[in-house]
Design brief:
The protein is an alpha/beta fold and 633 residues long. It has three domains: 248 residues, Aminohydrolase, N-terminal nucleophile (Ntn) domain (Glutamine Phosphoribosylpyrophosphate, subunit 1, domain 1); 200 residues, Rossmann fold (3-Layer(aba) Sandwich), CATH 3.40.50; 144 residues, 3-Layer(aba) Sandwich (Rossmann fold). The protein is built from 17 helices and 26 strands. The chain has an eight-stranded antiparallel beta sheet, with helices on one face. A six-stranded antiparallel beta sheet has the order 5-6-7-8-12-13. The N and C termini lie close together (10 Å). Bound molecules: 2-deoxy-2-amino glucitol-6-phosphate. 2-deoxy-2-amino glucitol-6-phosphate binds next to helix 8.
Length: 633
């Protein structure tokens, strides 16, 4: 995944592009570049490494220009341009592989997010036509193809070029001969546009635009935007004008800032109580009883379209990637518990290449739940499209309004978590869980597996979660102290049973992502079937213990770890004494309905991962080799 920005207006473009890229650096950060078009023509500056390296390079180039140089002679002067922050797919991170890429004459510049699948064929064809390539990227073919088709009309050249591209792309294109416009186009990679007085913008994601406007246009697949200084025109890929409406972004620029926290990850961990309230509260209502008894609390999902017509489903199928898949695993246990319905859950990259049995003719059909923070993950989108083709009814759980997932699903349930910038997902996970619980309890009520009283009790327990999360966060120093003693342990396991196994998987992922510590999760019952061979005095095992009927089993597992010299930590409720004698350290969470425990038990693990990352001198917001959302396979 990469981030692209574009600006055309009356001010110097370079600082605006760099500020936009800062907001998108979470999308990729192994190299960056900008192209600016001004009186001196098209100028490009790019650099391997983080954005700071590019900023330094630009500052150096400007400093080396002649003192008092006239406008138009400094490098990178101009009031329109493109920017890019890269996560390498084709070609290693290097100056030359960084975007923007230009055609042979250097008059056309292109930034790209996505993958051109037929780039090798196009490269060979262009070489046969005399083009000399500079980089190893798939993107460079686009610049040369546009040049090949260009005869004075950039829009036409872009339209002819995209006919020849296979794969995914969000593109920004400028041409020296047409200094009044930027062309942007997307297919399967996100792109938003926005306008403010006398200027127009494009970006891969909303945070890059918020400084300028909160009214944005989400481009649909194969739509083209032509950005002028005073307006934006939209076309379909056949060149016919398209009328588009703006969407108002409900959060502001401040929410996409660190707000006093050292890192976005810590800020987002702390935002969970509020995010959970925002995700839960609008969906709870007071309902009058029909028999004259007291009003009761119920879940209202009708406004998103989840009405009684969904109640007859024969099965629930869930697909997602990474953290969102872990949420799906919790969802499986929740649906089985509250609804007593068969549930299948799979990682989207497996699901899409299986031959899954989805049969709308089954009594009631399948509810297909697809989960994605970004709503743009390539495998997740492919899984959804396959399920849709096979006739399943699709419910999307996503955090990004207007994302591809949101637009293509039959029904959307938003996680009102606000922007999640840190690469490691935290508040998106817990709000995804909240959405799944809301859906499970509602479906259980609609199908009669939960009566009004049981449903109201579940709702009451859900309403207590945000405050309980707050309490865990208020005791974070204990986890910080533990991390400062343990962060050098490089063999870390999480184990649990049922809901706790799902949280173990998420905990291990969090730790490996941000601290680079090798961590794995296993179902505690599997300990003796293999993992125990790895346990020695260098091993830390955290046991997540929130399912009281299995406490004895967990305690035996902990003893087995201790007997082999391992260190054992436990995450359990504040009133549990079952592990007092065995565990080396106990992190206590407030007591809750045991089926809802993942909403709380994951928080200590998130904090542990964060502190280990910081203690190891790493940047938890931007772990190596990762990108916030994986929009390519
Ligand atoms: C989470 O910490 C990870 N960065 C990653 O596993 C992520 O959850 C996964 O790539 C799915 O992303 P999505 O929710 O945007 O689809």
């Amino acid at each position: 995944m990469c981030g692209i920005v574009g600006y055309i207006g009356g001010e110097e473009a370079a600082p605006i592009l760099l500020r936009g890229l800062q907001k998108l650096e979470y999308r990729g950060y192994d190299s960056a570049g900008i192209a600016v078009l001004g009186e001196a023509g098209l100028k490009v500056c790019k650099s391997k490494g983080r954005l700071a390296a590019l900023e330094e390079k630009i500052a150096l180039e400007n400093a080396s220009a002649l003192p008092g140089a006239a406008r138009g002679t400094l490098s990178l002067e101009g009031t329109m341009g493109l920017g890019h922050t890269r996560w390498a797919t084709h070609g290693e991170p290097s100056d030359v592989n960084s975007h923007p890429h230009t055609d042979v004459s250097g008059k056309i510049a292109v930034v790209h997010n996505g993958i051109i699948e037929n780039h090798a064929k196009l490269r060979a064809w262009l070489k046969d036509h005399g083009v000399a390539f500079r980089s190893e990227t798939d993107t460079e073919v686009i610049a040369h193809l546009i040049d090949f088709h260009y005869n004075g009309d950039l829009l036409r050249a872009v339209m002819e070029t995209i006919q020849r591209l296979e794969g995914s792309y969000a593109l920004g294109i400028i041409c020296e001969n047409e200094p009044d416009r930027i062309i942007a186009v997307r297919r399967e990679s996100p792109l938003v546009a926005g306008a403010a007085a006398g200027s127009s913008f494009i970006a891969s994601d909303v945070p890059a635009l918020l400084e300028h406007t909160r009214d944005v246009y989400y481009l649909d697949d194969r739509e083209i935007a032509v950005l002028f200084r005073d307006r934006i025109e939209f076309y379909n890929d056949e060149g016919q004008p398209v009328l588009k409406e703006t969407a108002r972004v409900s959060w502001d620029a401040a929410e996409a800032e660190k707000g006093g926290y050292e890192h976005f990850m810590l800020k987002e961990i702390h935002e969970q109580p509020r995010a959970l309230v925002d995700t839960l509260r609008p969906r709870i209502r007071n309902e009058e009883s029909t028999d004259g008894s007291a009003p009761f609390r119920s879940i209202n999902l009708e406004e998103i379209g989840f009405d009684s017509s969904w109640a007859g489903a024969g099965r629930v199928v869930i697909a997602a990637c990474g953290t969102a898949w872990h949420a799906g695993v919790v969802g499986k246990y929740a649906f089985e518990h509250y609804v007593r319905i068969p549930v299948e859950v799979d990682v989207a990259s497996e699901f899409r290449y299986r031959n899954p049995v989805l049969d709308p003719a089954n009594p009631g059909g399948d509810i297909f739940i697809i989960i994605s923070q970004s709503g743009e993950t390539a495998d997740t989108l492919a899984a959804m499209r396959m399920a849709k083709k096979k006739g399943a009814r699709i419910v999307a759980i996503t955090n990004v309004v207007g994302s591809t997932l949101a637009r293509e699903a039959d029904l959307v349930m938003y996680t009102w978590a606000g922007p999640e910038i840190a690469v490691a997902s935290t508040k998106a996970f817990t709000t995804q869980l909240m959405c799944l619980y809301l859906m499970a309890v509602r479906l259980g009520f609609l199908r009669g597996t939960l009566d009004g009283e049981a449903s109201a009790a579940a709702i009451e327990a859900m309403e207590k979660i945000p405050q309980a999360a707050e309490k865990i966060l208020s005791e974070k120093e204990k986890i910080q102290r533990f991390a400062s003693r343990q962060f050098n342990k490089t063999k870390v396991f999480y184990m649990g049973r049922l809901f706790d196994y799902a949280v173990s998987m998420e905990s291990a992922l969090k730790l490996k992502e941000v601290s680079y510590i090798h961590s794995e999760a296993f179902a505690a019952g599997e300990l003796k079937h293999g993992p125990i061979a790895l346990v020695d005095q260098h091993t830390l095992v955290t046991a997540i213990c929130t399912q009281s009927r299995l406490f004895d089993k967990m305690d035996s597992n902990i003893k087995e770890i201790k007997a082999r010299g391992g260190t054992a930590a436990v995450i359990t409720y504040e009133d549990v004494t079952a592990f007092d004698e065995t565990a080396d350290e106990i992190f206590r969470i407030p007591r809750t309905d045991e089926s809802l425990s993942p909403l709380l038990s994951v928080i200590p693990s998130q904090l542990y991962a964060y502190y280990c990352s910081v203690l190891r001198g790493l940047d938890p917001d931007r772990p190596r080799n990762l990108a916030k959302s994986v929009t390519v396979e």
